[in-house]
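Risk register update: the risk that structure generation would not scale has been downgraded. Supporting records follow, first protein first.
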Amino acid sequence: MQCIINRRAEFSASHRYWFSDRTEQSNQEQFGACARSPGHGHNYELYVSMLGELDRYGMVLNLSDVKQVIKKEVTSQLDFAYLNDVWPEFSHTLPTTENLARLIWQRLAPHLPLVKIQLYEHPRLWAEYKGAGMEAYLTVGTHFSAAHRLALPSLSLEENTEIYGKCARPNGHGHNYHLEVTVKGEVDARTGMLVDLVKLHEVIEEIVIEPLDHTFLNKDIPHFETVVPTAENIAVYIARLLKTPIQALGAVLDRVKLIESPNNSCEIDCSWLDSELHLPAQSQPALV
C-alpha cells in the first residue's frame, strides 16, 4: 500500500532581486521593493512530500532519517544565509521562491522519493514544485470584504430559507474573504521567476479586489444580480476574470481558492476554463 508522507522544516534567510549588469532603475522597475539594498529576509517554511510503500513497521520512511537528510542537504546550508551567495546556481539566477523550491528538489531527489516541494516565503506567498523540468506553481494570497445574500429571485423567502438557511435572510450578511490564486508556468532561467510578481499582484488587485471589496455583491456586481453569490460561484467568477489577464503575463491560471470563513472554503480547478471557451453559449455550465 502506498502512502504520501510530509515533513516540515524551516529556515530564515535573506535575499535580493538584483542583476549587477542592469541599472538601478531597470532593477527597480522589474523587482520593485525586492531590489532594495542590501536585501530583505523571510522565515521560510518548507514542506517535503514523499511517496512510498508502507513497510512492516507501518512507515514509508523513518522520519528521523528524513529530518537529517533535509537538514544536511538544505536547511543547514540556507539557515541564516544570504541566498544570493549560498548556492552556485544563484550566481546567474535569482533566489525567488519558485526557483528555490526547484533547487531544493534537486538536492533532495537523490535521497528521498519526492512528489512535491512546497515552500512558503510568507503566509500569502508560496511555491510548489513537482519535478517537471522548469515548471512550477506560485500562489499569492489576498483578501476582500463583501456582503451577500443567498437567494433565488424566483423563490419565496420560505423556499430560499429551506435551501440556504440563515444566508437567505433579506438584508444579507458579510464576510472577510481570503483569496488564493495559483498560477503555473516555466521558471525563467535568468530571473528565476515564472511570472512577474509585481504585475501579478497588480492584476489581482485591479481586476478582483478593487471591484469586489466593500460591496454588496448581489446589488453592486451585475453578474450577481442573477447568479447567487455562493462561495463556489464567486470563485468561478474570479477565475473567469483572471484567466486572460494572467495568460497575458505569460502564466496559466491553475486554481482559485476562496475561504469564506474558517469553516467554509472552496477551490476551483481552472483547467476547465479552456474547454468552456470553446462551448456554444447554450452548452456552457449554468451557475446558480
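Supporting record for the second protein:
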Amino acid sequence: MEYGITRAVAEALDTADPLAGYRERFVVTDPGLIYLDGNSLGRLPAATRDHLREVVEVGWGDGLVRSWQEWIDWGARLGDRLAEHVLGARRGEVVVSDSTSVNLFKLAGAALDEVADRRTVLMDAEDFPTNRYVVQGLTQQRGLRLRRLGSDLDGGLDLDRLRTALDRDVALVVLSLVSYRSGALQDMARVNEMARSVGARVLWDLSHAAGAVPVELAAAGTDLAVGCTYKYLNGGPGAPAYLYVRRELQERLRQPIWGWYGQREQFAMRPDYDPVDTVERFLVSTPPLLSLAAIEPGLDLVEQAGMAEIRAKGLLLGRLAVDLAESWLVPLGFRLASPRTPERRGSHVSLYHPDAWQICQTLAAEAKVVCDYRVPDRLRIGPSPLYTRFTEIWDAMDRVREVVARGGHRSRPSGLARVT
C-alpha cells in the first residue's frame, strides 16, 4: 500500500478505525505525549483502578483471608481466558503464574528431564537475554551442550539454519515467536514440525506476540510456551506471566520447583510432593494477588476488540511507520531494521541509526515521543493497536525527522542509562 505522505491520510485511517473508541478506555494523562512503547509496557486501562480498589477494599479489607475461597483459582481462570481469546489453546492448558523467566526455567527444566538421553539444546543467539541466560544455566547444570544459532539482527533466525542443526541429539529448541529487537515473526507451525521430525520439543516465548499477533498454539502443534502480560495485554508493570503445556504432556512432565500450589489436595499438608495431573502442577506458591488481579481489565479489552481486528490495525500502523521512515528518515541515515513484509513482523518496527540512543533520549526530552532503544543501534517504534492513533504515527515520525535534521540529538550522552 502506498501513502501520499500527508497527515490527511493518517486522519482518514483514524476516522475509519473500528478500534478507535478503545483509546478512551485507557488512562491518557497527557494528550500531547505520543507513546510508542506499548511493546515494553502497555498503557493503564481505565477500569484497572476501580477493579483493584474493589479487590483491595472488598476482597482484602472486608473479606480478609476468607476471600481466598475466590482468589485461589484466579491463575487458572485467567489462563483459560488467555487460552480461548489470545493463545488459541484449550481450557486447562494455560495458567497465570510467576514471571516469564521463572516459567521458562520450569518448562525447560521439565522438558530436559523428560529426555535424559539427549544432550543438545538449540536457541537463537539473538534471543532476549534472560532467555539465553536461563537456558545457559540449565545446560551448564546438567552438563548439556548449548548451541546458539547465529541469526540476522533484522530478519531473525533463518529456518534452514535451524533445520541443519536439528538432529536426534537435540532435546529442546527455545525460540521467541516475535523477536524483541526487530519484531521478526517466526513460523510457529513450521518450526514445530521440523523439531517433531527429530523427536525434539520447542519452547516458545510469546511475550512480544500475545495481544498483538493471533497465536494458534493448538493448531500449530505447540507443546510448550511462556509469555508476559504487561506488554500488549496491558496487565501493568511486573504483572505475572503465563505458561502453556499441551494437555497430553501435562502428566508426563514434572517441573523442577516443587511448591504447594502444584500439590494434590494442597491443604492436606502431606509430607511428600505429589503434583496434580493438570496444568496447575506447574504452579509453585501463593501468587501476588493484586498484580494478578490487574491483568483482568486489560484482558477484557483484548477479548472485546478481538485478535483479528487488533492484528489488522497493527499491520496498518506498522506499514504507515515503515512508509514514512523510508520517505523521510532514510535520507537522514536511518534504515529499516525489521522484515520489510508486514506479515513477517509483530506489532513493532525497528529502525537502525548510528546515533539511535541519542535520538531516543532527545525524542523523549524535547519532542514528547516515547519509544525505546535496543543495542547496538536500534530505535524501536512500538504502537499498540488498542490505543495508538494513526495520526500519532505520522506526528511521531515527523518529530523524529525534525530532531535529526537539526541535529538536536548530538549533544546527548552516548553512554547508556540504567533503563533504555
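The two ends are 33 Å apart (CA to CA). On this basis the risk owner (M.S.) recommends closing the item.
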